[in-house]
Amino acid sequence: MATGVNRKISAASARSHTRRANKSSSFHLPSGILRTTLAVLFIGFLAWAYQVTQPPPPNICGSPDGPPITAPRIKLRDGRYLAYKEHGVPKDEAKYKIVSVHGFTSCRHDAVVADTLSPDVVKDLGVYIVSFDRPGYGESDPDPNRTLKSIALDIEELADQLGLGSKFYVVGVSMGGQVVWNCLKHIPHRLAGAALLAPVINFWWPDLPANLAAEAYSQYKLRDRWAIRVAHYTPWLTYWWNTQKWFPICSAISRSPDILSKQDKELITKLLDDKDNHVAQVRQQGEYESVHRDLNIGFGSWEYTPLDIQNPFPNNEGSVHLWQGDEDIMVPVTLQRYIVQNLSWIHYHELPGSGHLFPHADGVSETVIKSLLGVK
């Protein structure tokens, strides 16, 4: 008869056996499936990132679902339309004809010189002023191919189609002042004179001293340093940066009061009252084709700098004036001083105690226009 054998197993041996059993029974995801899953997740992330960085198509004025057309417009050489607004005496009776270039996040209705110049001065001098919506603003078609030169050619074509003659004056405010630099560079032969009011400066203009540019740049609010850095180095991210909710966006786009000087805060109420009737028109075709493209062009890589420009009036047949407030938080006065010191043909007017909105102060427009026209 068989005899049973009783084997005694120690507790340690049992635990070791259990661990081996558990280890051998754990689940492993095959490496091929893991790589595929990670690849799908990565591709999904790229697709999401691409989508959030792409601006929506512009809401073109006059299109089936777009804003209505209320302004007179001209058709440009490439089929785009440019909206404009006329001020002052009839152009057929005018002695002086001026093209007004609006600034950042503005439109043809923001023609500060035309709006604040007294009717008596307009009549006595015989001044005609035409303001226009820069591409993508107001009721002017966007220009996806916009360059520094193209906006100058838009102004030349506007003047020609309106019959302003062989020469005319240009006045630009803020970002519109950059456009005046473009006119001085690309169509100087068409200008009778030019005025730049607090023109925006590109910190990456190569002719600016690096230490001076860096010092001025450091005085910007952190949010604005980031906004213009994105526009310069990664313009394809400008739309995302200024629409995301994680970080503060460009102060000018968000209308932050942090960039206003003491004088600006005194003038802003008057400015906003005047703007109430048309503020909705400014970005009605989309933020990307208006303010975002402005940032990309204004702070992008320029093929020239203002310091490259030659005197367009070597025989004093006209003049160029640059006006700047010494307490302007948006445009550093130190860089403006450097530019005019190296362009001796520019008539420089620095206004003590003034900020970026000084053109809206009482009497400034009259002084600017009379200086430009060389009259008293």
TrEMBL record:
Matches recorded under Pfam families: Abhydrolase_6
Record lineage: Eukaryota, Viridiplantae, Streptophyta, Embryophyta, Tracheophyta
Region annotated Disordered, chain positions: 1-25
Gene3D superfamilies: alpha/beta hydrolase
Alphabetical keyword list: Membrane, Transmembrane, Transmembrane helix
Protein name as it appears in the record: AB hydrolase-1 domain-containing protein
Positions of transmembrane segments: 32-50
Keyword field contains Transmembrane: yes
Domain AB hydrolase-1: 98-361
Keyword Disulfide bond: no
